[in-house]
User: What shape does this take?
Amino acid sequence: MGVGFDNIDVAAATAHGILVSNTPGVLDDTTADFAFALLLAAARRVTEADAFVRSGMETLEPGIDDRS
Assistant: This one.
């Protein structure tokens, strides 16, 4: 895995008229922010909590189901 042109066949792209460019350093902060957000989401089990709430199984207090 790499950045920039590491995974691009520049000759093939050029042969097909596809412009290839590089913007070093532009997404460093964004990538770090996203990686940290994924770590927090995994640690806090965000997707599981979202599925739980969407299923209609949310409760008023832990262990109490207010559905009648």
Q: What stands out?
A: The mean pLDDT is 82. The CA atoms of residues 28 and 34 lie 10 Å apart.
